[in-house]
Amino acid sequence: MSKSKLVRQQIWAGLKDVAKPDTRFHLNFAEVIPDFEGSELATDRLVEMDAYGSCTNAFITPDNCLVDLRRRMIEAEIPFVMSTYGIYRGFLLMEPGMVPKGAELYAAWLDGMEHFGRPISLEEIAGRGRFDLMVTGASAVSVDGVRFGKGHGFFDLEWGMFTDLGIVDEATPVVAVVHDCQVVEEKLQPSETDILVDTIATPTRLHTVERRARRPKGVRWELLDPEQISVTPPLQELQRIRGLA
After folding, report:
1. Rg (Cα) of the chain, in Å, rounded?
2. Which one of 30, 107, 197, 238 is most buried, counting C-beta atoms within 10 A?
3. 219 backbone φψ class: left, alpha, beta (φ>0; ψ -120 to 50)
4. Where are the domains of the chain?
5. Predicted pLDDT of residue 91
6. How far apart are CA 221 and CA 217, in angstroms?
7. What are the tens digits of pLDDT across the range 127-144?
8. Over the chain, what is the mean pLDDT?
């Protein structure tokens, strides 16, 4: 069994005690990164960061633990892009004025994002300029910044596409929001596709990663099978942009 799979299984065993069941996937952590008890406290710590205070264009993953963050950003009228589940329908844009007062919480849920947000292409995302903050959930994250997702590699793909377009890089702040039980205290060796985070926000602390390794760049096309490309519209768009299709 690989190290990453072992870490996930160990974390998932403890996560069941604090996770909030998903309406579709219940506690199937291979399919969903859940919300958890105290996620609002973790969000409190994140919004105190300078990177959040100066944020004008963010990328937020669709993880359940980030509902409260998305709600606050909608209320604060901070524009952000969010991927759809599995990136099957590409990306959604949320901008000021899209959500009527009182509907911010509903709009922050995945179904609400689909209702109030609007689809946005990679080309338009690139035209909006750099992301100055990226926030993601995780199955687990180590104190040295190695993040593990559900095992499908969606965040790795998103990062690869955005680096290819030049809108994220080594200087882009990346924050993981997790429960304390999802933090791996031992240091781990990242794989060639692992996206290392700068900061870990939990209900009890804000941990800054020191001397993290460099992040990968670009989409690793050789690691993708044709079926994955065929069900991921932004990958097909990137191929067209780069003249690969």
Report:
1. 17
2. 197
3. beta
4. 3-20+34-241
5. 98
6. 12
7. 999 999 999 999 999 999
8. 93
| Rounded distance between C-alpha atoms, residue 45 and residue 101, angstroms | 25
- CA angle 1-14-9, nearest 5°? 15
CA gap 15, 225 in Å, rounded: 31
Instruction: Return the CATH superfamily for domain 3-20+34-241.
Output: NagB/RpiA/CoA transferase-like (3.40.50.10420)
> Looking at this protein, which amino acid is placed at residue 152?
H
SS3 63: coil
Of 68-82, 192-206, 216-230, give the range with the top mean pLDDT. Answer: 68-82
Q: Residue holding tokens 């040295």? A: 144
SS (H, E, C) 11-31: HHHHHCCCEECECCCECCCCC
DSSP tally for the chain: helices H, then strands E: 10, 13
